[in-house]
Amino acid sequence: MVSLSKGAPEPSRAVVPVAPPPAPPVQPQVPAGWHPDPHAPHELRYWDGTGWTHHRAPGHAPVPTYHVGVAVTDQHVNGALVAISWIATVVTLGYFLPWAVAETRGKANRLPVFVLTLLLGWTVIGWVVALVLACGSHGVRLARQ
After folding, report:
1. d(Cα 26, Cα 24) in Å, to the nearest integer?
2. End-to-end alpha-carbon separation of the chain, Å?
3. Among 85, 114, 117, 143, which is disulfide-ready with 72 (CB 3.0 to 4.6 Å)?
4. In this predicted structure, what is the pLDDT of residue 26?
5. Do residues 75 and 138 make contact, with C-beta atoms less than 8 angstroms apart?
């Protein structure tokens, strides 16, 4: 071979490896089926796995989500106290009826009903007030989940 210039090395004919072109990014496979149309969100469009088809369907309005709470009452029944209150009611010929009703219903105010009946039950008005307290509704609240 003939050198083009003095002292310059002769060009070699070796093949230089070239890096392969980068692979295209892998896109996740979307299964075929009805999906929201990207151009009309209120409609559904059929995706066949590779592309959108001309098939369309009316979309559905989003279903509102509700947070459901659990209703909890202040009811608590103690079997022994229920038995004692009914025995006391029978022995006193109905005098402790408001207390027995409050205990049977598991009222949170059963102790005040007992004290009111014990101290003021002889005044018919006190007995009626105690019975109304025993028959009132339970306190209800929503418990967090």
Report:
1. 6
2. 89
3. 143
4. 59
5. yes
Strand partners, 36: 44
List Cα–Cα distances, 22 to 15, 16, 18, 19, 27, in angstroms: 21, 18, 12, 9, 15
What is the rounded distance in angstroms from the CA atom of residue 35 to the CA atom of residue 58?
11
Tokens of 105: 């219903």
Summarised one tens digit per residue, pLDDT across range 78-111 is 999 999 999 999 999 999 999 999 999 999 899 9
Write the single-letter amino acid at 127.
W
Q: What is the pTM of this model?
A: 0.50
Closest CA to 59 of 77, 35, 76, 39: 35
Alpha-helix runs per DSSP H in 10-138: 79-91, 97-105, 110-120, 125-135
